[in-house]
Amino acid sequence: MRVWAEFEKGARLRHIGHLDLMRAMQRALRRSGTPVSYSKGYNPHILLSFASALSVGASGAHELMEVELREEWTLDQFFTQMNAALPEDLRILRCGRLPDGASPLMSRVAAAGWRMKMIRAEDETALLPAVSDFFARDIIPGQRKTKSGMKDVNLRELIEKADILPDGTIEMILSQEEGKTCKPSMITDAMKEVLGLAALPRMELIRTHLYTRDARGQLVPLEETL
Amino acid sequence: MIDPNRIEAILEKVQKAPRYTGGEMNTTVKAWDSVPLHYGFCFPDTYEVGMSHLGMKILYGLVNQEDWAVCERFFMPWTDMMELMRENEIPLFSMESRRALCEFDMIGFTLQYEMSYTNILAMMDLGGVHLMARERTREEPIVVAGGPCAFNPEPLADFIDAYMIGDGEESTLEVCRTILQWKQSGADRMACLKALAGIEGVYVPALYDVTYHEDGTIASFSPNCPEAPATIRKRVVVNLNDTYYPREIPVPYTEIVHDRIMLEIMRGCTRGCRFCQAGMLYRPIRERSIARLLELAGSLEKATGYEDISLSSLSSGDYTCLAELIRELFKRFKEEHVSISLPSLRIDSVLKESLEETQQERKTSLTFAPEAGTQRLRDVINKGVTEEDLIEKVTDAFEGGWSSVKLYFMIGLPTETEADLDGMVDLASKVIRCYFEVPRDKRAKGLRVTVSASSFVPKPFTPFQWEPQDTQEMLREKQAYLKERLRKVKGVNFNYHESGTSLMEACFARGDRRLGAVLLRAYARGCMLDGWTEQFRFDEWVQAFADCGLDIGFYAFRRRDRNEILPWDMIDAGVTKAFLWREYEKSQCAEVTPDCRKGCHGCGIQRWKGVCHYAGVGRV
User: Which ipTM value was assigned to this complex?
Assistant: First the structure.
């Protein structure tokens, strides 16, 4: 039985990296009594995968994972027992059954939504106009790490959407498509460069959603399609 | 409480931030004002080391069980974090409520290793607590300490208000209650110290005076008030089955040194190795029953989700029904993908059967500790292990599919000669021969033999407590000799440690109260995290001794006279001085003392009624 779960990675855990988070989730699965399946072989591990790795520094509002169970299990049990077994900074929000043969969540992710907010109001007053200009540029010079080293790219092509909300929050949708993956650090590095700053002010960073493309090619939150 | 925003701002700049963020599964957060007593448990090393320590998990759970107390954790920040904290005037804060160290009613340091002493100063300094005990105000925490190094409390006497000697499960809550009563009484700090001195096993250094002879040795040591007992008897847990053991332990997010369930199967050791301080301090031997262990393992596994359980004790191979215990554990956890590991494997334990069971999960390298290269020297140190034992066990291991073996030795042991060093080389060569004698199709590929030689440090409450340590020149010469000879043995990897650390360890292990000044001086000169090779600054330590007019050689290289007053003489650790001296004399003629389960040697622990099952048995 395959189960998907939408979960929240709280702000306190934003320094926890992908592998540590995977381990925490695996241990929670074990604590919860969920009948998980293990891989075969020398070092058996729980068949768990996240739809997308969330980098250090960010919290996640609607993250997604899928896990393979070795026997039938009710979604109610999964939800209740997992939340009882998780620390308070990790919460299961929803869960459901993935049909056998359905493509892995990981393969469906096309983009990710991000929310950035400067911690201090005075930084916003000073910088937001320039940030707004930054996103309005036709060419946003940036760099992407590839197998053969750093490569210049026009970040414009990787940004699906960028807005500044009235409260100063910067909202972006960045591509996660093969060969076009854009991390928020690529944006902030470029911003630093273009704005001529030695360092950007402290910002809160949240991944709000993972997006997939619907039949018409439109970006929709992946969890809404499940 | 410290402004969370200020903490968050520096966390973004440090390496390994999860060391400082807390919120781990099974940690306890209580509303600050809901409990009258706040205990800050301090591990004077980094998070990764401290969170691997079983004693901390026991005491953390023990105190938090009480509804009138809360225990929160503190660790030593790494240098980058410390700099940022200083720069931003953020005090050392607890993992749970993020309150400053100085806000707690009591703080407790566990003393596991002498080279962590400067970290204690750094943590108090950063936490806003006066370093010198006598300068602390009534509002400041009472500073307590325990653990194996507390058995010689004197080097830290200037800084610690009270020591708990022996098993912490016994005294911790008594100490907490006494401090709470004092806090509510309004009496002065001295009243608290005197009340603490009335608890069995508690040593309060301020209540004792020391005088010295001109040659630097101690002339007198005595209590300066009627409340202070002349000797302090260590506390002993009588029955491990009845004593507190946690059923849930914190599960860190980030990887730590020992990231698994530690199941303490027994405490104490009956072997009587003469160099081993733990073997003397943790007497008598006490076992947990298989039923209790299975029950604890079940609870812990359920509460943590850990995939690994290690059996912990000084000598797990000596557990009476080890094979049965392992079998039962395997049976219990077969479906749950839990692996069971045995950390301190002795080579003379009947373990073949158990070995075959552990390998079902995975084959890591096997560790053997012959400690010395010849039978003569092994007899001197009473390491009751023979070459035949070793060869037999190594052969079993190679036949069982292991190909990686570690051999632990010590150099600088009393009476050591070149022949003993040659013996190590010889033993390593024989181990390699063993491997090649196993038919090719039956042995695993990739032979690796690691020979590790640590430098011997004489410790209090051992038969070698009167012995000089080898000088650095002598140790370096021995290391160079071994390196040269082992270079020619194919398949051997040789490891040894820089002698400076062992030298400082030797000074503080057997030091007196005057070393408090050296610690302060070394800390002022920037010494910290001295247990980390890259942070250890030997020259600064040498200078600190010189600045204080104290001689390193006096502490490390001097043979103590039998009648000398030793700095730790006021502590009754169970083993008597008479027993230790008998053992010392036997060592000098390479005479062994058999395992005490084969007959009681009257070490002294029999004075604690009913704690040692072997007391008086078959007395020769």
Answer: 0.92
